[in-house]
Amino acid sequence: MVFHEIYGTYYQTVSDILKEAVQGEITAEKIRRIIRDRAFEESSITIPQALTDQWHILTSDGRTPIRHVPRLPLTDLQKMWMKALLLDPRIRLFDPPQDELEDVDPLFEPDFFFCYDRYSDGDPFEEEEYIEHFRLVLLALREKRKMEIVFRGKQGRHRQVYIPDRLEYSSKDDKFRLAAHTEGHVPYMINLARIRQIALLEEVKPDEAEAPPEKKDMVIMELTDERNSLERAMLHFSDLEKETVKLDDLHYRITLSYRREDETELLIRILSFGPTIKVTAPDSFIRLIRQRLNKQKSYGLK
What we know:
This protein is α+β, with helices and mostly antiparallel strands. 35% of the residues lie in helices and 24% in strands. The protein has helices at residues 9-22, 28-38, 43-54, 76-86, 89-92, 128-143, 206-209, 229-236, 263-271, 283-298; strands at 145-153, 156-170, 175-182, 187-191, 195-203, 217-224, 241-246, 251-258, 277-281. The longest helix has 16 residues, at 128-143.
């Protein structure tokens, strides 16, 4: 079942009305507002009348004999899509339920796609130790608990008590990393693949929970909106804090904030837009671009 009328506008609108009615009385004004927001203006005449006189699922005083909130079943296409997503080892790290999907064929296989601009030394998402560490970090974030972490850094092994702030994923590096801070509010960024041991500790105290402010660098660019480059840039840099100013009908100034450790990745992402993006500041970032292009030229690449 890919397409069916129950997934159309009218059924969805009636479903929303009944959800409100199941939770208590619903007024005629609220019905008109739901119809206005989700359907067409002329439906404000036909739907209320059908609810009371034709289908008899809503009384004149806004009550319904229906006891449970209406729920639409998943289509075959939706199930196939979900099954395909669950084949991704990164998604399986979150241990999502797979009820009713055992006999469903995936819409696509992971090897249907090739990421040409991604590093090949990504995290070992399917190793048991990595999965165990990932889920412990996830549990600590959900339950707001401290962790004692042993990880391998540039200067050897480190053992420290950390307060987790968030998990991040880099699509360019194909790695997860943990943003955390110490009890002394010193920020850290830890690659999950470098973690050797994790022990969950007590809950975080309110005065310890607040993450220290991050020091970020900025890059200013001028974008020429050709070949839909503005829309692509907004999507491409959606994970970054940014400010966009329209200069004229074709040109925009975009200011991005980023962490210093992400500078190389951001440089590659900006260069992927070719001549439609020109970095105007700071000078240090412009020098990095020139060095990157000169290095590329020395390899005989264009």
